[in-house]
C-alpha cells in the first residue's frame, strides 16, 4: 500500500462523481467499502464510509451550487486511516482521519471550482477549433481526475509519514458512529418526513427498537 | 421514423459523459452538444454544431429525454433551430427539477441509508443494496429517455406526470422515511449513546435554517473534537 497507488484508485473513483456515468460508485459508503476491501480492511472501510455517508447524505448537487465534496471525504477518510494506523494508535488515528476527511470535503469543494474554471478554458478552445469538440470535451476527464489525484495524494502522503504525538486526542469508534447516526437521522427527517410519511418513519423507528429488544 | 440500434447505442454511451466538461459558463453545454452530435445524421451535423454551442443544464439522467427528442426534431427537419432551442430551454428546466427531486433528493439518499444499514449489519455485500436498484432505475431513465424522447419528440415533457416520476418518487419517500427510522438499529445502547438525543435536533435545525454547508461541516469537526475530549 502506497500513497501513489491509493491516490490513483481514488482518482478513478472520483471520476464517477460527475465525469463518467454517475453510477454512485464514488459515494462514501461504496468507495470506502471497496477501498477498505482492496487493502484488507473491509470493516474499517464500511465504518468510516458509513459515517461520512450519513453526514453528507443531504449534500445535493443542484445547478451551479457546489456542496462539500462528500465523495472526496469518503476516500480521504478511509485512505488516511489506513496509512495513519500503521505508525500510530488506532483511536488517535481514527480521530485524525475523520477530521482530515471533513477538511477534505471543504478543500475538495474549493478545488472543484478551479476544475470548472479549467473546463471553461477547454470550452473557449473548442470555440476556436470546432472540429476538436470531442478532444476538448474528453479533456474534462483529465481535469476531474487530476483534481482528485492531487487532493488525495496531499492527504495520503501526510498520513503515510505523520507520527501522532502521545497525548493527542482519541476518538472511540462507537462515538463516531453516534455522530454519523445523528446526522443520518437528521438528514433523513429533513429529506423524507412529510405529513403522509411521518407514520412510516415512526414504523421504522419502532421496528428498530423491537429488533434491538429481541 | 426509426432511431436504429447503432445510433441509440452511440447516444446512450455518449450520454454517460454529458457532464465530463462541466464548466461555469455552459454547465453541461459541451457535453450536450457532443451527445446530440454522436447520434445525428451526417447532413445535420454542421447545422447542430453551429446552433448548440451554448448553455445547457439539466439533471444528467434526465438529459437523455431531451437528447432523444432533439435527435428526432433534427431527423424530421420540420422545426427551425430557434424552435428547437426554445423547446430545449423549456424542457431542461422542467426535467432538471423533476430529476433533482426524484434522484438527488429521494431515490439516492433512501437507497444509501439502506446500503449503510445493510453494510454495517451484514458486511461487504450491503453495498449492493444501493448499487443494483439505483443503477436499474438510473439506466432505465437513460435508456427509455432516449427511446421515448425520439418517439414522442417535444411531447416528452408530458411524461413528467407519468408513474415513472410521480409514483416512484412517492414510493421512495416512504422507503426513505422507514430507512431513516431504521437507523436507530445501528446504535449500540450504552450510557454515552444518549448523546444522540440532542444531536438529532441540532442537525435538523441546521438544515431547516439552511445554514451554509461549510458551517455544517465545520460544526461536525467541532463536535468530533468535543467528543474526543469527553
TrEMBL record, chain A:
Main location: membrane
Subcellular location: Cell membrane
GO biological process, alphabetically ordered: phosphoenolpyruvate-dependent sugar phosphotransferase system
Transmembrane parts of this sequence: 45-63, 93-114, 135-163, 175-193, 198-213
InterPro entries named in the record: PTS_IIC_man
Membrane protein topology class: Multi-pass membrane protein
One Gene Ontology CC term in the entry: plasma membrane
A Pfam family hit: EII-Sor
UniProt keyword annotations, A-Z: Cell membrane, Membrane, Phosphotransferase system, Sugar transport, Transmembrane, Transmembrane helix, Transport
Protein name stated in the entry: Uncharacterized protein
UniProt organism field: candidate division WOR-3 bacterium 4484_100
Lineage summary: Bacteria, Bacteria division WOR-3
TrEMBL record, chain B:
Keyword Membrane: yes
One GO cellular component, as annotated: membrane
TM segment ranges: 110-132, 171-189, 195-228
InterPro entries, A to Z: PTS_IID_man
Biological process terms in GO annotation: phosphoenolpyruvate-dependent sugar phosphotransferase system
Sorted UniProt keywords: Membrane, Transmembrane, Transmembrane helix
Keyword Isomerase: no
UniProt-recorded name of the protein: PTS mannose transporter subunit IID
Organism annotation: candidate division WOR-3 bacterium 4484_100
Amino acid at each position: 500500500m502506497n500513497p501513489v497507488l491509493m491516490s490513483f484508485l481514488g482518482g478513478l473513483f472520483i471520476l464517477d462523481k460527475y465525469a463518467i456515468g454517475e453510477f454512485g460508485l464514488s459515494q462514501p459508503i461504496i468507495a470506502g467499502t471497496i477501498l477498505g476491501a482492496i487493502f484488507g480492511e473491509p470493516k474499517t472501510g464500511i465504518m468510516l464510509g458509513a459515517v461520512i455517508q450519513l453526514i453528507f447524505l443531504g449534500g445535493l448537487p443542484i445547478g451551479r451550487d457546489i456542496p462539500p465534496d462528500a465523495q472526496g471525504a469518503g476516500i480521504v477518510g478511509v485512505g488516511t486511516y489506513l496509512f495513519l494506523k500503521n505508525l500510530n494508535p488506532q483511536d488517535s488515528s481514527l480521530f485524525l482521519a475523520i477530521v482530515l476527511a471533513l477538511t477534505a470535503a471543504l478543500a475538495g469543494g474549493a478545488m472543484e471550482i478551479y476544475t470548472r474554471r479549467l473546463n471553461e478554458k477547454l470550452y473557449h478552445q473548442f470555440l476556436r477549433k470546432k472540429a476538436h469538440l470531442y478532444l476538448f470535451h474528453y479533456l474534462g476527464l483529465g481535469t476531474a481526475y487530476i483534481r482528485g489525484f492531487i487532493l488525495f495524494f496531499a492527504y495520503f502522503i501526510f498520513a503515510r509519514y505523520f507520527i501522532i504525538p502521545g497525548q493527542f486526542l482519541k476518538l472511540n469508534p462507537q462515538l463516531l458512529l453516534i455522530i454519523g447516526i445523528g446526522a443520518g437521522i437528521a438528514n433523513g427527517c429533513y429529506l423524507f418526513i412529510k405529513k403522509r410519511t411521518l407514520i412510516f418513519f415512526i414504523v421504522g423507528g419502532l421496528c428498530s427498537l423491537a429488533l434491538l429488544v429481541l | 421514423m426509426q432511431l436504429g440500434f447503432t445510433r441509440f447505442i452511440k447516444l446512450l454511451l455518449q450520454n454517460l459523459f454529458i457532464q465530463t466538461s462541466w464548466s461555469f459558463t455552459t454547465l453541461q453545454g459541451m457535453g450536450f452538444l457532443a451527445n446530440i452530435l454522436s447520434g445525428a445524421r451526417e447532413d445535420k451535423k454542421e447545422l447542430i454544431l453551429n446552433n448548440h454551442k451554448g448553455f445547457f443544464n439539466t439533471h444528467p439522467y434526465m438529459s437523455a429525454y431531451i437528447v432523444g427528442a432533439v435527435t428526432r426534431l433534427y431527423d424530421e427537419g420540420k422545426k427551425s433551430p430557434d424552435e428547437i432551442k426554445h423547446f430545449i430551454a423549456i424542457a431542461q428546466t422542467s426535467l432538471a427539477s423533476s430529476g433533482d427531486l426524484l434522484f438527488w433528493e429521494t431515490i439516492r439518499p433512501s437507497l444509501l441509508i439502506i446500503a449503510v444499514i445493510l453494510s454495517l449489519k451484514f458486511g461487504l455485500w450491503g453495498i449492493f443494496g444501493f448499487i443494483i436498484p439505483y443503477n436499474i432505475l438510473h439506466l432505465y431513465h437513460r435508456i427509455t429517455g432516449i427511446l421515448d424522447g425520439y418517439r414522442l419528440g417535444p411531447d416528452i415533457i408530458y411524461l413528467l406526470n407519468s408513474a415513472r416520476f410521480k409514483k416512484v418518487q412517492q414510493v421512495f419517500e416512504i422507503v426513505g422515511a422507514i430507512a431513516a427510522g431504521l437507523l436507530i438499529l445501528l446504535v449500540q445502547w450504552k450510557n454515552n449513546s444518549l448523546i444522540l438525543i440532542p444531536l438529532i435536533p441540532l442537525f435538523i435545525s441546521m438544515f431547516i435554517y439552511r445554514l451554509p454547508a461549510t458551517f455544517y461541516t465545520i460544526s461536525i469537526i467541532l463536535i468530533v473534537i468535543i467528543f474526543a475530549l469527553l
